[in-house]
């Protein structure tokens, strides 16, 4: 579904991402892990069109979208759930969901809001509540639901467990597994490398803007070098 070749992103003289190549097959969860500052979020922003490429190619469903604007990428089927959730705090839960489906007919949007409320019952209970009044976990559920309202072919998740209580983290990872089982394609950027490798089929390890390891997630979970550097003790 997604093929990235020789991706390079620079901020002025500073090269944040250099010659990165990776693939995301349809229907899979692929993880991108690595330390803070490695460039993981920069890659997602480049994929969604928020950060321009310096060089390289992004192909989505066989089409080159490297220079396509962000809103056109949404129309093509790419939706990003940003780090830090970034819900529209002054708008209600329902309004946030409606904005997630802004490109689609109203009848479909209403039906999908019902589906999101089945996924996350708290969103139904707090439908009229301002998003800024939700807890961190509730805001993360809303952010994911808002992304899914676009009916994306590819869902980009940026640090979905960041700053959440352990029980909520468990729920979020179980939900990503549910999406995988339903056939949703996901590219997951996650600091919690252990959990990311549990739910993904393939993973890439990023350091200093470069891919330094890659392979099936189960294999990486057992690799002594990966365990020492990223997983630590169980």
Strand order of the largest sheet: 6-7-8-3-9-10
Kindly state the percentage of residues in helix.
25-40%
The count of strands amounts to: 10
Shape verdict: globular
Order of helices and strands: EEEHEEHEHHHHEHEHEEHH
Percentage of residues in DSSP E strands? 25-35%
Query: Could you name the ranges where pLDDT drops below 50 across 5 or more consecutive residues?
Result: none
CATH topology of the largest domain: Rossmann fold
Q: What integer is the average pLDDT?
A: 94
Secondary structural class: alpha/beta
Largest sheet: 6 strands, mixed
Radius of gyration: 17 Å
At CATH level 2, the architecture of the largest domain is 3-Layer(aba) Sandwich
Q: Count of helical segments?
A: 10
Account of the protein in words:
It is a single chain. The protein has 234 residues and is α/β, with parallel strands linked by helices. It has 2 domains: 124 residues, P-loop containing nucleotide triphosphate hydrolases (Rossmann fold), CATH 3.40.50; 68 residues, no CATH class. The protein has 10 helices and 10 strands. Helix 3 packs parallel to helix 6. The two termini are 33 Å apart. The mean pLDDT is 94.
Descriptive labels:
10 strands, 10 helices, 2 domains, six-stranded mixed sheet, Rossmann fold, 39% helix, four-stranded antiparallel sheet, 234 residues, alpha/beta, globular
């Amino acid at each position: 579904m997604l093929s990235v070749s020789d991706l390079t992103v620079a901020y002025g003289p500073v090269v944040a991402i250099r010659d990165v190549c990776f693939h995301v097959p349809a229907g899979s969860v692929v993880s991108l892990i690595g330390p803070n500052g490695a460039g993981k979020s920069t890659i997602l922003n480049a994929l969604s069109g928020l950060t321009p490429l310096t060089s390289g190619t992004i192909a989505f469903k066989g089409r080159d979208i490297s220079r396509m604007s962000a809103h056109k990428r949404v129309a093509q089927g790419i939706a990003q759930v940003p780090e830090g959730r970034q819900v529209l705090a002054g708008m209600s839960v329902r309004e946030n969901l409606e904005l997630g489906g802004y490109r689609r007919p109203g009848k479909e949007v209403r039906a999908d809001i019902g589906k999101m409320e089945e996924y996350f019952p708290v969103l139904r209970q707090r439908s009229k509540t301002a998003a800024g009044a939700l807890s961190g976990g509730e805001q993360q559920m809303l952010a994911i639901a808002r992304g899914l309202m676009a009916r994306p072919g590819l869902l980009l998740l940026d640090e979905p467990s960041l700053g959440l209580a352990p029980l909520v983290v468990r729920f979020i990872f179980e939900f990503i597994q549910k999406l995988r089982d339903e056939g949703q394609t996901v590219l997951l950027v996650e600091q919690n490398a252990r959990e990311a490798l549990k739910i993904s089929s393939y993973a890439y390890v990023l350091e200093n803007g470069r891919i330094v390891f890659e392979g099936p997630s189960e294999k990486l979970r057992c690799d002594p070098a990966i365990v020492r550097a990223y997983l630590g003790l169980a």
